[in-house]
What does this fold into?
Amino acid sequence: MAQYTTREITPEIGCEISGLDVRRLADPAILAEIKTLIGKHHMLCFKDQNLGAQELVDFTERFGEPDSHILRQYTHRDHPAVYVISNVEDRLANVNDVSLNWHTDLAFKTHPSAFVVLHAEKVPEVGADTCFASMQRVYKALTDEEKARLRGRLATYSYVRLHAKRTRIEPLTAPLSPQQLAESPDVYHPLLRRHPDTGEEILYLNLPDCMGIEGFAEDEALGMIKGLFDRITDPAHVYAHKWSVGDLVIWDNRTLLHSATWFDPERYQRRMLRTCVKGEKPMPSVPLQAAAE
Ligand SMILES: [Fe+2]
It folds into this structure.
């Protein structure tokens, strides 16, 4: 075991790692230890890091291929894989917008992110926490009947609908261009999918861009999704991460939901760098025809 310390944050979510410069993940033995930890805790916080954009990309590549965001106007000028969340410069992005709502990133893509990485450069004294909630906790609490109802079902997700909710960053939110629209067809993901690393059946769903569930009326489907979301985000089981400058957080976007808390952009500065690791196409936990009774 390399010389660093770990601290479980909650029994369901998160592990804090101190005394490890993440540049040392170039060592395959250390990287293997870290991957084991993320499989167990779903979210890791490396304390006291100081990474430039290229070093953040290098870190991200330890876990897979970096993904890019559809809103390219907010990406780092020299590193398109790095998304800048900031009110410090004029490239204001994602401050107090739909990120305040619970979600999993990029569910509207055919290959949603596997992992999301955030690195804190400037943090407000008050607000701008990142909150996490475990889909796996609720999966484990589902009855056999509830699982049977979800198994083999596909939910529909629409980026066009999500974009329409980005009202809080007006006037910077432009209508989607024809190219962006062409890159954003509706997608279909199984509600119960197979985690590619663990092989476990996992619950995977997103509310903000969900349009429905195949085989269910829209009202019933959205009611089911909302009900599950409410269970997942039960405040008694949420972990709210209070950021410190230098924190580097990576989480499994397939097993956790996340949301941000509000902060006052007139009073405080916030600058975060974000990357995503491209994920696999979600695989249903059973062949889809098995659900069609
Ligand atoms: Fe997000």
User: Anything to note?
Assistant: The domain at 5-279 is CATH 3.60.130.10 (Double-stranded beta-helix).
